[in-house]
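Marked as duplicate of an earlier ticket. Keeping the data here for the record.
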Amino acid sequence: MQTVPTHLQGLSHSEVAKRRAAGQGNDVPIQTSRTYWDIFRDNLFTFINWVYFFLSLVLIALGRASDVLVLAFVVLLNVVINVIQEIRAKQKLDKIALITRPKASVIRDGQEQEIDPSEIVVGDVLMVRPGDQIVVDGSIVGEGEIKVDESLLTGESDLIPKQSGNLVYSGSFCVSGAACYEAEKVGAESLASKMTAEARKFRKVLTPLQHRINLMIRLLLGVAIVLGFVTVLRMTLGVTSITTGVQNLAVIVGLVPIGLYFMITLAYALGAVRIAEQSALVQQSNAVESISNVDVMCLDKTGTLTTNRINLQTVYPIGIDQAKLEAILGDFAASASTSNKTNDAIIAALPRAKRPVKVEVPFGSAHKWSAVGFADAPGLYVLGAPEILGTVMPLSAEQQASIREAADRGLRVLMIAHSPTVPDLYDGAGDPVLPATLQPLGILQFGDELRPDARQTLTEFQQAGIQVKVISGDNPLTVAALAKQAGLSDDIIAVSGQELAQMDDAVFTQTAEDSTIFGRITPEQKARLVQSLQLRGHYVAMMGDGVNDVLSLKQANVGVAMESGSQATRGVADIVLLKDTFSALPKIFLEGQRIRNGVADISKLFMVRIFSFILAIIAIGMITLSFPFGIKTSTIVTFLTVGIPPFFVTLWAKPDKPRGGQGNPFMHFVLPAMFTLSIASILIYLFFLAENIGPVFDWLNGRIPFEELGRRITRADIARAQRVAETAMVTMQVLGGLLLLPFLKPPTPAWVGGEPLSRDWRYTILASLVLAGYIVILAVPALRRFFELSQLDFTDYLGIGLVAVLWALVVRFVWRNSLLDRFLDTKISPF
């Protein structure tokens, strides 16, 4: 802990107690997720549920209470499953979120101590150093000077200098320097609290997949509105009774796949919990899906490939005595107002007492050097990157060779130099400027410790199909050497920030694509590299731990931070790796891919079911002027085909990357299955309708005239025939929906057509178990009557089963020969 300025004593503990009692404490809780009421409300009071509620009231008024029970079951099942899972996810995530809550360094009774931000009171004096978040509003006191990033508040990325008397705001963070500030506005009075009262809470951010699903739901809602309008018109004209019309409206409302959205919500809630079990905290709701799309992973070397622990290995003097140089280095490190890992390594190797300082330039990742001028000695000492210091002082061939040789061995190399004078160290814009009179004093070599799991982790990245790029502030040769030690190939291309600075936009973007190692990179260049990769169509994740990584983390599609990183880095990251578990990251990628693939699979099942229903309703309505489904029969099809199976499909999904190539594999599966299942269902319905109205076949065979047909058919005959036909079509829909499961994940080559071979028998077993459940419903009279299904002959069921088998062969033939793809002029890559 650094020494506190003697003139800043801060509040006493008794003053703190009095101010807290007076209500001047920073007691506003930070809400990390939704409340229990929010979860319950968002799942229960939805648009579709309100429509079901209204229809239920109408059905109760018409004496159809049993239909209301079915509607209530559908609604409550969705609500209960999602509420339970989201509450479990909330409890898990809230517990883990407490770990990353920022701390505050406060001065009380002249002693610096670390406290929770909620313990701050008005008048507290707080210490802030590079990477620290400013947690309350206040003003700088004392002689310190800092540069802060207020982009989280203003959207501007320029660094703002702050010195005595300047205001600082909660939500910003310190980038360089060190200073104290006095708390003036705390709790709800702070600027950040006023600006982000809602932003700090759980935000329901729709992911790209959810946007596509929402578009699909809106389109289906439009179809449902048209069908509903026709139904209302039929009721108005007296063609359909009010009771039947309301039942038809309930079925039409059920065509809107709100259950699909619920299943997606459930999948991502479970995914967030599973990622938490990998020692990672999901801070943004879209991170689970975003991580599954990543194809380029950008790493900062320090703290990711390495353990963030370095040690000073060698000091080579240049024109100076070894002992004198080591004394200067020890004094330099001990006297710096702010420290970092490099400084700590020097202190550990060369401990010295602090000396009075008359001028100082703190280290900054943008300029990559620091400077100290002692009050009791002339001149200025500068410690920084050799290639930066080399721009203003000559380096001999021997010195340059020594630097390259150390970098090739993966060592971090710095130089210390001396200027006999202390010129103006800042330009007109307030940026640090190197003295022009520098003379080299020595070369320092530091060793980085590779993470023991770095090689295995990089291998898993490659197996997941993810490119790795290392972006660092260190020498590119050093970074490349360490990357090779960690398992990257020997033919990697390394480039420096100085080279990038000379490139135009086109060359810069191409270099970002082709190169693997980027060294001596400034924070702005890191963000630009990420942006360039995005412009080339990549989905980019950025991982870092320092304040210099904040810009690139915010630019990336997915930002990943280490728990041990700066408060600012953790604050802007989408995912925080708890306990710095770098090895967990490939598992998180695979988990995201697994979730996305599962959602894609259940979407296929939903689309086939919904569109086959719609086509059947339209076609049968046009032919027979009747509605082919009731509430209970449509519910049983929905529950058995897209109610039970999607839950297991989501759980069993595998983290394979989506198939590449041309065409749309989703439509390749859905369209043939939808059209052929619709045709089979319509033909089944019409056949059983005609068969159970006796005179119809006599008329079709020409044995009776059409006028005689009209006289022989009664309303009772038509109602009985429609019910039998409806049962037959429901059976066909159930069989077709369940046969889609082995087609979705083919257990043997015989099932391959719409999807590649998986050899996973669980889906086939699930389909068999669900089919057994439907057979039980048909076999038990009470269940059959409740769901308003007719009892068919065994030969009828056998015939429907044969049609289902024939349908499976036809749709497989269409898939395997890409007949519909050819008709639509699309191409699907072979499996």
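See parent ticket for discussion. Residues 24 and 151 are 28 Å apart (CA to CA).
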